[in-house]
Amino acid sequence: MRLPALALVVVAALAGPAAAQEQSPDHPDTFLVWSAGIVDVVDHYPHAIVSVEWRYDAGRRVPSPWLAFESTARDQFYAFGMYADLPFARGWVFTPSVGVAIFQEHNGLHLGYPLEFRTVVELTYGRGAMRFGACLGHYSNLYLGETNRGTEYVKAVLIVPLSRRPGAGDR
User: What whole-number distance in Å separates Cα of residue 28 and Cα of residue 151?
Assistant: First the structure.
């Protein structure tokens, strides 16, 4: 019974600062996320990975959608899912996300199945709408294929606002 209570306290602590911040009309509602890093970080032969991601901010306390294209020198991921921005200190944002990806294998990562599931935790800092930081992610096929090698990645992240909610320039 203590674990659910602890989870409730953690969620309330993270959601409190987010609820206290008013979202002004000039708050961006779409973002472009650029990232680059290393996949297979625990393997003997890591590979470079780059990605571009589109995010829509649905508002506080609502999971928001994302779409992403990620690529190594040989393989590609076409992914989509949900994320939540959780501000926890002035300028700092913790962002967990989950999603699904179509994996195109071209003799690179050997993940074992064309459907992969993606989980990511991201920590960013910024003033205004632009943020930078790092993320740690994992791809797994949950044993849908004959093998489930899975892979981890670490990337540097730059989040750039694309558009603003109506009324952005009215003040």
Answer: 33
Total domains present in the chain: 1
Please name the residues in contact with 94: beta carbons below 8 A apart, sequence gap of 6 or more.
Answer: 14, 85, 86, 87, 88, 121, 122, 123
- State how far the Cα of 147 lies from the Cα of 160, in Å rounded to an integer: 37
What CATH number is associated with residue 136? 2.40.160.20
Domain region containing 30: 2-164
Q: Is 49 contained in some domain?
A: yes
Per the listing, tokens 């962002």 go with 95
- Give 106-157 pLDDT, tens digit per residue: 888 888 889 999 999 999 999 888 999 999 999 999 989 888 888 999 999 9
pLDDT in tens, 91-119: 999 999 999 999 998 888 888 889 999 99
